[in-house]
Amino acid sequence: MRVTEPADTTPESPRREGLMARVAALEREKAELLSLCAELQTRTLKLESDNKQLAEKASWLERRVSSVDNADLWGLRQPQEQPKPKSRLLSFGFGGSSRRR
Q1: Which are the contacts of 99, defined by CB distance < 8 A and separation ≥ 6?
Q2: Which end of the chain has fewer CB within 10 Å, C or N?
Q3: What's this model's pTM, rounded to 2 decimal places?
Q4: Cα distances (angstroms) measured from residue 48 to each of 38, 45, 51, 52, 86
Q5: Which residues, including other chains, have CB under 8 Å from residue 81's CB and lie 6 or more apart?
Q6: How far, in whole angstroms, is CA 59 from its chain's centroid?
Q7: What are the residues whose beta carbons fall under 8 Å from the beta carbon of 69, sequence distance 6 or more?
Q8: Do residues 96 and 90 make contact, with C-beta atoms less than 8 angstroms apart?
Q9: Are 77 and 71 in contact (CB under 8 A)?
Q10: In its keyword annotation, does this UniProt entry include Coiled coil (predicted)?
Q11: Ordered DSSP codes for 10-74
Q12: Separation between Cα atoms, residue 85 and residue 98, nearest integer Å
C-alpha cells in the first residue's frame, strides 16, 4: 500500500516571504540599472561622435589659420607690402615661369 503525503497547505514562513520580496526588489533594481547602463552607452557613443566631429573641425580651422599671415590677419600690412595677386592660371600651374618641375 502506498502512502501519500498530504499537500502542503501551510502558508510560507514570514522569513521566506521577506526574502522573496527582497529578491523581487533586487530584480527591479537590476532592470533599472541595466536600462541606465544602456542609456549611458548611447550617450557615450554620441559624445564620442561629437568629439570626433569637433576634432576634425578644429583641425580644419588650424589649417586655415596657419595659412593666414599674421600681418594680414591684423590688417597691419602696409600697402606697399601687399603681395601681388596671382592670376588664376598661375595658381593652377599654367603659364608663368618656364621652369619644369
Answers
A1: none
A2: N
A3: 0.47
A4: 15, 5, 5, 6, 42
A5: 71
A6: 17
A7: 77
A8: yes
A9: yes
A10: yes
A11: SPPPHHHHHHHHHHHHHHHHHHHHHHHHHHHHHHHHHHHHHHHHHHHHHHHHHHHHHTS-HHHHH
A12: 19
Cβ pair 95, 87 in contact under 8 A: yes
Q: CA angle at residue 65 from 59 to 72, to 5 degrees?
A: 175
Assigned C-alpha cell, 47? 559624445
pLDDT at 101: 45
Contact 101, 91 (CB under 8 A): no
C-alpha cell at 54: 569637433
As given in the structure block, the three cell numbers for residue 98 are 618656364
